[in-house]
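A reminder from the course coordinator: this example appears on the midterm review sheet, so study it carefully.

Given structure:
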């Protein structure tokens, strides 16, 4: 029987593979953007369907976005920001400061 490994050990193995760091960062960005949209939508008391109507999307597309399943374009982020009554700010950060 194979030895059981900790999650930290499995993650270290995965992250040591070529390209894994970039994939991890992309997934992290998708998750953080989706979470920010969900939190703001809930603050405004909107349903996913109402947000979809405001942005010209379908409700399943909003659900996928909020779950971190899609990487949006800048124009899509602009539409979401307008619908959520917030300002979109895109910036570059040095790698050592990025979280």
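Designed residues:
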């Amino acid at each position: 029987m194979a030895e059981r490994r900790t999650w930290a050990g499995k993650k270290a193995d995965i992250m040591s593979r070529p390209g894994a760091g970039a994939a991890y960062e992309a997934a992290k960005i998708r998750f953080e953007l989706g979470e920010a949209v969900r939190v703001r939508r809930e603050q405004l008391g909107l349903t996913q369907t109402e947000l979809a109507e405001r942005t010209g999307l379908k409700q399943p597309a909003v659900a996928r976005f909020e779950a971190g399943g899609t990487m949006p374009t800048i124009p899509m982020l602009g539409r979401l920001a307008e619908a959520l009554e917030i300002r979109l700010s895109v910036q570059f950060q040095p790698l050592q400061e990025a979280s």
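Residues 81 and 88 are 6 Å apart (CA to CA). The mean pLDDT is 90.
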